[in-house]
Specification:
Length: 92
């Protein structure tokens, strides 16, 4: 079922773990600072972790490779960009 893990798959796993770490760190910082625009960054890091996980599954599981997955990943990428933009431009 699972073949040996390639270098790109290892990097995808590391990116996903790092995104989860940044997600948790952002939540922790939000609890201390209570800056509302951090919610956008928290959501973006969470979506980035989800995107990384879906991308990994697409590489590892052949049955997970479907045309709508590419569209979903593109929509998630767009949402991440919009959320980071809102985090930077939103006023208090």
């Amino acid at each position: 079922m699972f073949e040996s893990i390639n270098t790109d798959e290892i990097i995808e796993i590391i990116v996903g773990i790092f995104a989860l770490f940044l997600f948790a760190l952002s939540i922790s910082a939000y609890r201390i600072i209570k800056l509302k625009k951090m919610i956008f960054a928290i959501a973006a890091f969470g979506l980035f972790a989800v995107e990384s996980f879906i991308d990994y599954l697409e590489d590892v599981l052949p049955s997970f490779d479907a045309p709508f997955i590419d569209i979903l990943l593109a929509i998630i990428s767009l949402a991440i960009l919009i959320l980071f933009f809102l985090a930077f431009v939103k006023r208090k």
